[in-house]
Design brief:
Strand order of the largest sheet: 1-2-4-3-5-6-7-8
Shape: globular
Oligomer: single chain
Order of helices and strands: HHEEEHEHHEHEHHEHEH
Strand content: 15-25%
Number of helices: 10
Number of strands: 8
Largest sheet: 8 strands, mixed
């Protein structure tokens, strides 16, 4: 049994139990994918079942210029996949763009979680455009549907760069939790991995920089043999190695900023440590920021504030993308 699921591990906590309950509920209720004809479980509906308290979203109005909402960036298996694109208020020319990929255990959530993160307004204020995407969800659509969608979103942005006023050569990716896994995979898996399918295949899905917040990197460890049904519900019969960002690492991968809470009971920090070590060993620029006193989602472990603070984390993200996309 893995360290993550060992009952006496210091990281076995309510969050791990919550995600198992969530996935079990999703399997039992046989939901559809976000954007399909029938409504999928959204962040709101899932949280109401389990009484999860999400951060209050920041009001983006004073930080945003032009907005494109519910744009269909690609259609996969008959499902229109949508994104919201937010341009900075003082856009004066082609801007760098950051693709935001939401979390939700690959089974729930949507792009409306963008503004629950202080990084969103910080990036807009720093002159970045943000494309917040939706993607197909399990169990209706199993892996690699999710990464296929993320890659198609990047290609679509390049194809329509002039419409959004973005620079197609300056695209970064930022994701949290399951979204962190997907942006890490986006950063390491080249076209030869087989995830580039669908529309805009004349355009590249490569990105210039990646921010991974507490994303899983080793699927077999996260879902050990004791939990095959849960793993299969999301990843089907695919070899878990094929879903690991570490499988595809090469020296030409983009720089990574990885940020993870030291007390994360849902995705242990060892997952990010392993990815950072593998990237570094291959010569890829990588920085791992360990957030003290923080659980999954940078929730404080107790009364002690997290360190670095949430605002300091946002500045780290802005500085990283400024360094590599400006």
């Amino acid at each position: 049994m893995s360290h993550f699921f060992h009952p006496h591990s210091r990281r076995w906590g309510r969050q791990a139990i919550t995600v198992l309950i969530l996935i079990s509920l999703v399997i039992a209720s046989t939901p559809t994918v976000l954007g399909a004809a029938a409504a999928a479980p959204t962040r709101e509906s899932a949280s109401s079942r389990l009484r999860i308290q999400w951060p209050r979203p920041e009001n983006p109005a004073r930080h945003v210029g032009r907005v494109w909402r519910n744009v269909t960036y690609c259609t996969m298996d008959g499902v229109p996949l949508t994104m919201d694109v937010y341009a900075p208020r003082d856009q004066t020319g082609p801007t760098p763009v950051v693709v935001f990929v939401h979390g939700g255990a690959w089974v729930f959530g949507d792009n409306t979680s963008l503004f629950t993160n202080p990084e969103a307004v910080a990036l807009l204020d720093a002159g970045f455009t943000i494309a917040a995407i939706n993607y197909r969800l399990a169990p209706a659509f199993k892996f690699p549907a999710m990464i296929e969608d993320v890659k198609c979103a990047v290609r679509s942005l390049r194809a329509h760069a002039s419409e959004y006023g973005i620079d197609p050569d300056r695209i970064g990716a930022w994701g949290e939790s399951a979204g962190g896994h997907l942006v890490s995979l986006l950063g390491t898996a080249e076209k030869s991995a087989g995830f580039d399918v669908g529309e805009y295949l004349d355009y590249s899905s490569e990105v210039t920089a990646v921010v991974d917040m507490f994303g899983p990197t080793d699927i077999m460890t996260l879902f050990p043999d004791a939990l095959p049904r849960l793993r299969t519900a999301i990843f089907g019969d695919i070899d878990p190695i094929q879903a690991s960002p570490m499988t595809y690492i090469s020296p030409d991968d983009p720089p990574f900023l990885i940020i993870h809470g030291e007390d994360d009971g849902l995705v242990p920090i060892e997952q990010s440590e392993a990815l950072a070590a593998a990237l570094s060993a291959t010569g890829v620029p990588v920085e791992l920021v360990r957030v003290q006193h923080a659980r999954h989602g940078f929730i404080p472990t107790g009364a002690t504030p997290i360190s670095p603070s949430r605002d300091e984390i946002a500045q780290l993200v802005v500085d990283f993308f400024t360094q590599h996309l400006r």
